[in-house]
Structure formats: C-alpha cells, structure tokens
C-alpha cells in the first residue's frame, strides 16, 4: 500500500520524513483523486509478469535503470539538487523501484506538498504537468527503472511553468476529475 502524507514546511534536511504534527496520511484513493498519481505495489522478486502487463497496456516501449547514490551517480550533489527543484515534465514520469528508497513530492489541489515514500516493488506514475520533485531518504540510495513511451525525455521545466500546454492540460484534468486507468 502507498505510504504518503502531507508535509510540514520545515527547511531541515530534505531527506527526513517531514510529517506534520500530528501526521496526516494520504490514502491511495485521495492521492489519485487529488493528483492523478497512479501507484502499484509489485512483487519485488517476481515483478516481470505484472510489469509487462502494465508496460503493454500503457505503451511503455523503452526502459533503463538509474542508481542514485554518492558512489553510483556522477555529479551526485548537483543531480540531487536538480531532482529536488520543483518542476513538471511534458510526459508522464514512471519509476519502478528495484532497490533502496526515496521520496517523490507532489502538489495537491491546495498546492500543498504530499510526500510519497517509494521502496522496492513500488511503481509510481506521475502525470504530465504535475509539479513534483524527488529526493533520497537518509539511506542515500535508490535503484529504479525508468519507463517511457517512445524515446526517453528527461527535460524538467522548473516552476513556474503554468503557461506550458502540459501544465494547462493537467490543471484541466485536476478540475474535471482524473479518469480511472
């Protein structure tokens, strides 16, 4: 089950959980309704059959694997800063966690941050146009499969990006309600 919560406004280490006091958890249904984020928990040891079904049904034709840690990622500190800048993409962002853990933060309808913890077996799909960011947790390591429709595009568009078509379409879908997928 997804582990997500509303974040506090603390400027302390971004790798900490940043719960409100008291914590306010966000259910998968609320996350989906407010943000359009899709989530699956796959068997971390035997994920191929279910992952292949999802890839086929959603048209994901390209994948690669990224490892984010001080030892594995060149320019680690700089890359982590870029990942943590609030941004959108013009395509979905699809990540399947193979090892390690981290956090994806997404904005809800009230423009508050929801922190989504990802661990092995988590498949997360962020819709095109959603403001989001990523950081590691205190373990400083994640290995994730990145999935794409067609040629991979990694271009982040930092906030503000409200004039971009992908953002306008996302806001429209958020107002009208996200379709069941």
TrEMBL record:
Entry keyword annotation includes tRNA processing: no
EC assignment: 1.13.11.54, 1.13.11.53
SUPFAM superfamilies reported for this sequence: RmlC-like cupins
Positions that bind Fe(2+): 87, 89, 93, 132
Cofactors required: Fe(2+); Ni(2+)
Region (Disordered): 1-20
GO BP annotations listed: L-methionine salvage from methylthioadenosine
Catalytic reactions of this protein: 1,2-dihydroxy-5-(methylsulfanyl)pent-1-en-3-one + O2 = 4-methylsulfanyl-2-oxobutanoate + formate + 2 H(+); 1,2-dihydroxy-5-(methylsulfanyl)pent-1-en-3-one + O2 = 3-(methylsulfanyl)propanoate + CO + formate + 2 H(+)
Membrane topology of the entry: Peripheral membrane protein
Cited CDD domains: cupin_ARD
InterPro entries documented for this protein: ARD, ARD_euk, RmlC-like_jellyroll, RmlC_Cupin_sf
UniProt binding sites for Ni(2+): 87, 89, 93, 132
A GO cellular component entry from the record: plasma membrane
EC top class, as a word: oxidoreductase
Compartments (UniProt record): Cell membrane; Cytoplasm; Nucleus
Pathway the protein contributes to: Amino-acid biosynthesis; L-methionine biosynthesis via salvage pathway; L-methionine from S-methyl-5-thio-alpha-D-ribose 1-phosphate: step 5/6
Function: Catalyzes 2 different reactions between oxygen and the acireductone 1,2-dihydroxy-3-keto-5-methylthiopentene (DHK-MTPene) depending upon the metal bound in the active site. Fe-containing acireductone dioxygenase (Fe-ARD) produces formate and 2-keto-4-methylthiobutyrate (KMTB), the alpha-ketoacid precursor of methionine in the methionine recycle pathway. Ni-containing acireductone dioxygenase (Ni-ARD) produces methylthiopropionate, carbon monoxide and formate, and does not lie on the methionine recycle pathway.
Family: Belongs to the acireductone dioxygenase (ARD) family.
Identification of the protein by name: Acireductone dioxygenase
């Amino acid at each position: 089950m997804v582990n997500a919560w509303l974040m506090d406004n603390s400027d302390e280490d971004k790798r900490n959980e940043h719960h409100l006091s008291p914590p306010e958890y966000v259910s998968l249904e609320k996350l989906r309704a407010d943000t359009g984020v899709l989530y699956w928990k796959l068997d971390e040891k035997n994920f191929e059959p279910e992952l292949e079904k999802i890839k086929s049904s959603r048209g994901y034709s390209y994948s690669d694997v990224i490892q984010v840690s001080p030892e594995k990622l060149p320019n680690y500190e700089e890359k982590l800063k870029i990942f943590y800048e609030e941004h959108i993409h013009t395509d979905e962002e699809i990540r399947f966690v193979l090892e390690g853990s981290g956090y994806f933060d997404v904005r809800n309808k009230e423009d508050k941050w929801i922190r989504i913890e990802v661990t092995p077996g988590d498949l997360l799909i962020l819709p095109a146009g959603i403001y989001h960011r990523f950081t590691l947790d205190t373990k400083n390591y994640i290995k994730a499969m990145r999935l794409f429709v067609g040629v991979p595009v990694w271009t982040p568009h930092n906030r503000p990006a409200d004039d971009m078509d992908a953002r306008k379409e996302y806001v429209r879908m958020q107002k009208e309600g996200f379709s069941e997928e």
